[in-house]
């Protein structure tokens, strides 16, 4: 799993990790039943604390995307549905809009212009 984080991103690191894993599942890089690398290994590769990765994994478990099994690690429970991926992308778009001085209403107006 090749995950990258943007340290200039204002979102908390655990949300960035969860988003990257969610995208990997949604795009088919990980399929239902596939095991993820241990949290400690992911944390070391990303240069962050293992507790940050564990928090992201717990969030994804709570969404129903991952399942934890004692002695077997973390595996993909199901495929990210379209709505979950869109919500993640919308969050990222809203954050980008804020960086450029636009608020929620401005973003809604832009989307309405496109439709």
From TrEMBL:
PROSITE patterns: HTH_GNTR. One of its GO terms (molecular function) is DNA binding. It comes from the Bacteria. Pfam families: GntR. Keywords: DNA-binding, Transcription, Transcription regulation. InterPro entries: Tscrpt_reg_HTH_GntR, WH-like_DNA-bd_sf, WH_DNA-bd_sf. Residues 11-79 form the HTH gntR-type domain. Gene3D superfamilies: Winged helix-like DNA-binding domain superfamily/Winged helix DNA-binding domain. This is GntR family transcriptional regulator. The lineage of its organism: Bacteria, Bacillati, Actinomycetota, Actinomycetes, Streptosporangiales.
């Amino acid at each position: 799993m090749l995950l990258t984080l943007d340290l200039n991103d204002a979102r908390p690191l655990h949300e960035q990790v969860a988003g990257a894993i969610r995208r990997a599942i949604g795009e088919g890089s990980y399929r239902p039943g596939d095991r993820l690398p241990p949290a400690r290994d992911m944390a070391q590769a990303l240069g962050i604390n293992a507790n940050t990765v564990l928090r992201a994994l717990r969030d994804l478990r709570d969404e129903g995307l991952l399942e934890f099994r004692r002695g077997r690690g973390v595996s993909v429970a199901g495929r990210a549905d379209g709505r979950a991926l869109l919500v993640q992308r919308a969050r990222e778009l809203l954050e980008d809009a804020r960086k450029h001085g636009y608020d929620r209403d401005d973003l809604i107006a832009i989307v309405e212009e496109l439709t």
